[in-house]
Each structure stands twice: as C-alpha cells, then as structure tokens.
C-alpha cells in the first residue's frame, strides 16, 4: 500500500474544505487553509502484483555489513594486500555462484584469509528497485614495509594442548561434525579443535585456511571464557548449556558465563538443611550443677532463681513437692496467690522393738506474718521427724514420742531467731514461727499431736461410718466456741477466725503440745493437712466427700486429688496434705456389724 500524505499537486483538494486547489496556490481561496504546510509528494515505487516471481540474488555467505568489524589478527594484516585485488577479480557475474578464493602461496602457511566481499545483485533486481547497493568497504591496505610472519599452526597429528576431541552430535539431531582431510582444516580445526575424518594427502599450501565452512547443525555460538572454541556437534544439555561430563572449553555460549557460584544439587540420601525460620534451637546443655529455665528451655538459672537468658523467675524447689514412701505419701503446693511455699512436710517409717512398723507423717505451716516462715516450717518438720525416728525404735511410748517431737521442733524454730543475720532490724520484726501437726501409726494405735490450726481427719474406708476430726485448733474461733460465746458458724465467719493462739517460735507465750491416742476398730486413712486444704473442706463430712475411695491403696494419688481440690477452690493459701493409711492389726476382733432395721 502506498504511503498516505497531503500533496499540493494539480487535481488535489484543500484538506480543510475539500475545495479543489491549483498548483502554486499558497492559501485556499475558500477557507484560507495554508497550503504551504503540505509536504511535497514523494516518489513511490510500483507495487508488485501477488504471484509475480521475484528473482533474488544467491547468497554467497553471511552478510556482515551490519555487524561490528571483526578483530584484526596479524595474519589478516599480512594477507590483506594479497587478497584485496583478488577479491574484486573473483566477483562472479550476475546469477553465477561464487567461487572460493585461490589458495595463498606456500610461504604464507597458517595465514588467515579475509572473507570475499558479497556478490553484486543481479541486474533484474537492480532494475526493479533502482540502483544496486554499493559493495561493502574493503579492509584497509596494510602499511608499506615487511610484515611479521605469524607462527606456524600445529600439525593435525599433534592437536593444540588444552583442547579435547570434538564432541559427536546427539542421535537424531541431524548435526554432523566437520570433517576433512588432514592438512585442510575444517570448522573445528579453524578454531583450534582437532579435525575429524580420514587422513588424506596434504593440499598445496599446507596450513592455509580456506573460507569458513557453514556451521554444523546444533552448534551453539557464543563466547567461552574469552576464546572462540566451539563444538561442531549439537549440545546434549540444551541450547547454551553443556551436557553432563562435556568439556566446557569447546562449547560456545550465546551469553557470557556467569561468575556467580552455582550450588550443586544435593546428593541422594544426604540430609536436607532445615529452614532456620522454622527450626527450633536445640536446648543448651545444663551446666554442671545447674538447671535449665522452664520458660525458654535455653538459659541457665542463676543463684537468685532467675533465668540468665529470658529473666523468667524460676519455680522454687518447694513450689510443688511430692513424696511417697511405702504406705504414706504427701504433696505440697505453693497455691495460686502466694509468691512462695511456706509449708513443709516429712514422711518416714521405722520399726518398733517388736518389729512392727511405725509410719510417721508431719506437716508444718509457716506463719506469714513472721519472718522467714518458710525456714521455720522446714526446720520444724525436719526436727520432729528426726526425733520420732530416734525414740520410737527404743520402745518409747508413741504418745510420749510425739510430745518430744513437738518440743524438738519448737527448739529448732527458736534457734532461727538467734541466727538472724541482722539482729538490729530483728528487734522490730516477729520471730520465725509456724504451726505443726503430726500422726503416727504404730502398734495398732493412731497418735496425733499438734500446735496451731493445722488439722488431722479420720476417714474410714467404709464411708457409711461417720468420719471425725482428730484435732482442735489453737485459734481465736476455737476459743470463742469453747467458751460458748459463739457457735462454730458465727466464729469462723468472723475476720479474726484464723488468728492463731498457739504456735512454735521464740515469741510464743508458752509451749503446750496437744497429743491424742486413738485405736480405730476399722481400716481407714488419716488426712494430715494445713488450712490451705481444710478451708475448702472444713467439716469431717466435707473432707470425707473429697477423699477418694481408694485412698488406702493409692495414698499419693489421693493427696494429689486433695491438693487439686484446694486449687480448684481458689488456692488462696499454700496447700499441704499427707495421707496415712491405717490398717487394723491381725488378731484384733472385727468391728460389730450394725443391725439393719
């Protein structure tokens, strides 16, 4: 299609009003349109009809007129004068196929000839499209004077070092390696590769390089580390990439090689790296004598009880304690409101002189308004337990042994007051104090002793039999009830109900240990506890309802259940429970069976 444009030739019309205008008019007489702005008509070329054969010139080689000039080598300068004149004479006539240039003289062995110029287009094409295009410029003539002789190329029998054999083409690719007789370099030999094919006689002018032969199918052009090596056959690895095990020095790439480090694929059976964003850090091994933080599981706990890594306060050893020893077990917990556990317990067993067992359970509750209450309860429980284990095997009466144990506990607590590290400030503080309750099952008897408001309950295995509370509190509420001033409900509803009137400590009024001996006629368990439990099961019937039915068989489980009951109720105080099963000795008469109505 002809190009469309405004023209001012005769027979044309004004672009503004479509009125006819004449040649030489500068303005339209109808609308005043400026006709001088119109472009002059151009020379159009005739349009070829569809189906008309067009005769094109035969290509003699790759047209390099639009490419950057090639790199000049010494051989190019040496033979440029000899080949410039011969290139013009070797131009074939119109329509004739080009002929290869003559071989250079023997003295120019190893010289690289200059490719011949492209042929002149046929006259038919020149007539259809105007004048024939000019031939590309010839290389400049070398300067006058002797030219340096280039080094002779290596013979075909000894390939150049650093180059391996030509890579054969892949099956079915249609490519074929360049072949030729020895001495007549093929495409591979022209670029430093080893020529392939049967050996033949050397041509005149051995070492001369003819015009570059067409490249074989599948050859991937491109630089390779700055050289010009290439494989004449197809590349198995795909376009621009060598196959596995192929010599990359003979492969040319379309794009320059990347200097980035390429990671190799993991070998089968090797471990795959874990994503660091999702991987959890392994816990650091605990130092000798140290322990890990329960919060982050990475840091170590310092001597002050805080994690060196996250600063989390660590649970103290006494925050939750459990112990099971034969047929007796105890559990102590800090509770939900207090910052530390001020309760303590001790469970043990020994043998009487006749060989019968004696089982001991001691529970102490530190007075929170005193100083160092946790130390006071621990010292009292330890001293009472040691005293019982010392005197019971000697045949001491169990009730007397209990009294001696409470006195020993009191002395241990009193000693804490004299060990105050700051005696001057101790003048304005209460001395360490605690309460105590203990139970001993020995010789078919059940001995209990106490000072303060810690309690002991009897819960028979037969829940049809009424349970009982075995202790009386040393508290303000108990004194009000004993004096008849209030009933039990009114007394314990008062805010002063838990104010104790008896305790172990240097500032106690007087020590009056309470001891009682019982001889149960049926099996059951003794629940020895602090007010952290009985505040949620105060009466004996209430306590019997929360004690599991298999408490005699599973004392530790029963103690855990009782502590859980207190925590479920609010856990306002420290909770400590000891469960001591009691069995009727063999030979004792069975209890009478109540008559049914």
Automatic annotation (TrEMBL):
Compositional bias per record (Polar residues), positions renumbered to this chain: 1-11, 61-70
Compositionally skewed regions (Gly residues) per UniProt: 172-195
Domain PPM-type phosphatase: residue ranges: 327-582
UniProt xrefs under SMART domains: PP2C_SIG, PP2Cc
Compositional bias annotation for Pro residues: 113-122, 134-156
Stretches for region Disordered: 1-21, 42-287
Bias type Low complexity, positions: 80-97, 123-133, 157-171, 196-217
InterPro entries the record matches: PPM-type-like_dom_sf, PPM-type_phosphatase-like_dom
Protein name as it appears in the record: Protein phosphatase 2C domain-containing protein
CDD domains registered for this protein in UniProt: PP2Cc
